[in-house]
TrEMBL record:
<dbReference type="InterPro" id="IPR020026">
    <property type="entry name" value="PseC"/>
</dbReference>
<dbReference type="InterPro" id="IPR015422">
    <property type="entry name" value="PyrdxlP-dep_Trfase_small"/>
</dbReference>
<dbReference type="Pfam" id="PF01041">
    <property type="entry name" value="DegT_DnrJ_EryC1"/>
</dbReference>
<dbReference type="GO" id="GO:0000271">
    <property type="term" value="P:polysaccharide biosynthetic process"/>
</dbReference>
<feature type="active site" description="Proton acceptor">
    <location>
        <position position="186"/>
    </location>
</feature>
<keyword id="KW-0663">Pyridoxal phosphate</keyword>
<dbReference type="GO" id="GO:0030170">
    <property type="term" value="F:pyridoxal phosphate binding"/>
</dbReference>
<dbReference type="GO" id="GO:0008483">
    <property type="term" value="F:transaminase activity"/>
</dbReference>
<dbReference type="InterPro" id="IPR015424">
    <property type="entry name" value="PyrdxlP-dep_Trfase"/>
</dbReference>
<comment type="similarity">
    <text>Belongs to the DegT/DnrJ/EryC1 family.</text>
</comment>
<dbReference type="InterPro" id="IPR000653">
    <property type="entry name" value="DegT/StrS_aminotransferase"/>
</dbReference>
<dbReference type="InterPro" id="IPR015421">
    <property type="entry name" value="PyrdxlP-dep_Trfase_major"/>
</dbReference>
<feature type="modified residue" description="N6-(pyridoxal phosphate)lysine">
    <location>
        <position position="186"/>
    </location>
</feature>
<protein>
    <submittedName>
        <fullName>UDP-4-amino-4, 6-dideoxy-N-acetyl-beta-L-altrosamine transaminase</fullName>
    </submittedName>
</protein>
Length: 382
């Protein structure tokens, strides 16, 4: 009989989610309709932002945020090396150059002191990434941005439901734009999808324009109104639209978000307790004033490779997040060199992501903990 595998992440979809999608399928709008607007309004209300723009992926959300921020050829944008490639690719899409600032030891978010060193005359924006769901030191990052007239785009793909200084991530307290992803492994799952939040009306209007081909029908914006059929294309936009079908799932998932985040926090407490006095496992530390929503639970171990394979043999499908982006072959070929961010590179050698998702049972968490400890204790004997 096949062994039951424990994935590192998976979605939670109930009957009511299915019913919501079925209802959307029977309605008159399949693509952008009333459910997209409702999903946007609910996300904006949940996070405490004024405006929200839904798109077809987190990657599109990052690209759209960069376009709205006016990032273009010749600009530099500073981001973290320890993130999914999309956090830096969005800068390349705009013809600009990603600059990597090293991460904080034990926290693994971009270090504001390192960011300061990388700011130059071409720097246009900062993209802090709330790695694993733990918010960056946003107050310092935002102060740096203000000082240097830079825009801040939070990549909050890991951090829906997280808080910083008492406010929800996405509130825009310390940034201009915040990006979320609704990929199946993230806090709410809609297949593929993303959203950009902002409190700035000007940025909001640009987001709307670039989401749909750069086309406007708004009569006040038209150069030359010829009749009610008329629209004009004012910038080179894209088709980043989300469907009503996916938005129905998004709205339904959003109702469960608090419960999802609570369960993730419970699981993290269980892991924290288990490894607190266990020297062979190090866990990450939360940022001062932050409350992580635990997209990932990361541990650091010596001889990561052996531990990875032994856990997988036991049916625990651990993962690694992430190889520093600039070590990816595509980035190497652009001229980035090893040694650029030593803390990030040291972290990569030891990191493992343990299973973390709301459906994970206490028994499964305990099985993961016992197996990790077993492997590491036997390692010493060998
Ligand atoms: C998932 C993710 C993205 C991209 O989101 P998609 O919805 O998969 O396009 C971007 N940044 C980070 C940090 C992510 O984890």
């Amino acid at each position: 009989m096949a062994k039951k595998l424990i994935p590192y992440a998976t979605q939670w979809v109930d009957e009511d989610d299915i019913a919501a999608v079925v209802a959307a399928l029977g309605s008159s709008n399949l693509t952008q309709g009333p459910r997209v607007l409702e999903f946007e309004e609910k996300m904006a209300a949940y996070c405490g932002a004024k405006y929200a723009v839904a798109v077809n992926s987190g990657t599109s959300a990052l690209h759209l945020a960069c376009l709205a921020a006016g990032i273009s050829f010749g600009d530099e944008v500073i981001t973290s090396p320890i993130t999914f490639v999309a956090s830096a690719n969005c800068v390349l899409y705009c013809g600009a150059k990603p600059v990597f600032a090293d991460v904080q030891e034990d926290i693994i978010n971009i270090d504001s002191d390192e960011v300061r060193k990388k700011i130059g005359p071409k720097t246009k924006a900062l993209i802090p990434v709330h790695f694993s769901g733990n918010p960056c030191e946003m107050e310092k990052i935002n102060a740096l941005a203000k000082e240097n007239k830079l825009l801040v785009i939070e990549d909050a793909s890991h951090a829906l439901g997280a808080k910083y200084q008492g406010q929800m991530i996405g509130s825009g307290q310390f940034s201009d734009l915040t990006v979320f992803s609704f990929h199946a492994v993230k806090h709410i799952a809609i297949g593929e999808g993303g959203m950009v939040l902002t409190n700035n009306k000007d940025l909001y209007e640009k987001l709307l324009l670039y989401r749909s081909h750069g086309i406007t029908r708004d009569r006040k914006d038209l150069n030359n109104y010829e009749g009610d059929w008329f629209y004009e294309m004012h910038s080179l936009g894209y088709n980043f639209r989300l469907t009503d079908i996916q938005s129905a799932l998004g709205i339904s998932q959003l109702n469960k978000l608090d419960a999802f985040v609570d369960r993730r926090k419970e699981i993290s407490r269980r892991y924290h307790e288990a490894f607190a006095d266990f020297q062979k496992v190090k866990v990450l530390v939360e940022t001062d004033g932050a409350e992580s929503s635990y997209h990932l639970f990361v541990i650091l171990v010596e001889d990561r490779k052996t531990v990875f394979y032994k856990l997988r043999e036991a049916g625990i499908m651990v993962n690694v997040h992430y190889l520093p982006i600039y070590l990816q072959p595509y980035y190497r070929q652009l001229g980035y060199l090893p040694g650029l961010c030593p803390v990030a590179e040291g972290y990569y050698k030891k990191t493992l992501s343990l299973p973390m998702y709301p459906k994970l049972s206490d028994q499964e968490v305990d099985f993961v903990i016992d197996t990790v400890k077993d492997i590491l204790l036997k390692e010493r004997m060998a």
